[in-house]
Amino acid sequence: MADGWIGYAITPEMYRESLDKIHAAARQVSREIPNFGTGHLLFACVADTYDKAFAAANETLSRRYAMDFTRATGRYAALGTPAQVAERVREFHAAGVRHVVLDLLGPFESRDEQIRQFAMHGLPLLHDIRQSIP
């Protein structure tokens, strides 16, 4: 149907540029998409510090993609405390994302705690933007 787009492994700036290209292409063929859906699969790791989150995320991504992911981890992931992860989500929202899927990284055993920490301390920081999504 081509009425939406889900980004992956990009920065907020790259996301905005991609949306601009999509809308320009639609205009070129006189296509209007009034309810165009926007989403992003965001690598994330919630921990006590940015450094701990970076280390856990980088180990997971480097193993997942069978290559050194150090540069990409820092560039594409939301890492750190719940507040730091929420801030990264906010950056993607400002770029046009309206639906975010958090791909929680690190040891599988840490995922429940990451969810709990983000739900308790990160999600409330996004209350204002959650209310703006139709």
Structural features, described:
The chain has 134 residues and is an alpha/beta fold. It has a single domain (4-131), classed as TIM Barrel. Helices cover 51% and strands 18% of the residues. Strands 1, 2, 3 and 4 form a four-stranded parallel beta sheet that branches. Helix 1 (12-28) links the parallel strand 1 (4-8) and strand 2. Helix 4 (82-94) crosses helix 5. The model has no long low-confidence stretch (mean pLDDT 94).
Helix content: 40-55%
The CATH architecture assignment turns out to be Alpha-Beta Barrel
Give the low-confidence spans: none
Mean pLDDT: 94
**CATH homologous superfamily (4th level) name:** Luciferase-like domain
- Could you tell me how far the N terminus lies from the C terminus, measured between alpha carbons in angstroms? 20 Å
Shape: globular
* Number of E strands: 4
Structural class: alpha/beta
Strand content: 15-25%
User: DSSP helix count?
Assistant: 6
What is the N-to-C order of secondary-structure elements (H for helix, E for strand)?
EHEHHEHEHH
Q: Radius of gyration, Cα only, in angstroms? A: 16 Å
Say what the CATH topology is.
TIM Barrel
Q: What is the CATH level 1 assignment?
A: Alpha Beta
